[in-house]
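--- STAGE predict ---
source: upstream dedup step, 1 unique chain passed
mode: sequence only
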Amino acid sequence: MEESCGKCTPCREGVRHLYDILTDISGGRGREGDVELLESMSRAIMDGSICGLGQTAPVPLLSTIRYFRDEFDAHIRDKKCPAGVCKELVTYWIVEEKCPGCSLCLRVCPTDSIIGSKKVAHKILTENCIHCGACEDVCKFGAVVHG
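--- STAGE serialize ---
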C-alpha cells in the first residue's frame, strides 16, 4: 500500500481500500460479502494496474482467502479469531484453579481491568480490557488465557 507510486488509480486507491476492508474484518467490523468484494477488487486491481506492484499486490490476499476462507468467515460471522491474534476479537480470562493470586497481572494491566487480592484468584473485567495481552505475558502459572 505504501509502495505505490500513485500513477494508476487501481493500485493507489484499490490496495488502500483492500487494506481498509481487511482492517475492518480483523477488527470485528467485517460484513457479509466482504470476502467476495476483496476477491473482485483484487482481480480489478491486478488487471488495471500499470506496473508489477499493482499486478501482484493482491496475490497474497487471494492466496490467503483461498486457503483460509473459514477464518475469514469466522471473523465476519462469529466475530472470532480462530488464530487468537486479532486483538479486538480476543477475550482474556483467568482460570481460577491456576491463579495463586500473585498480582503480577494486576500490576501490569494498563487499564486496571484486573481485580483481586493476594492469594485469591483474580478476575478480568472484560468490559474495560483493551486486549493488550500484558497479563498473559507476565503470568507464570498459565492462568491467563485467551480465546
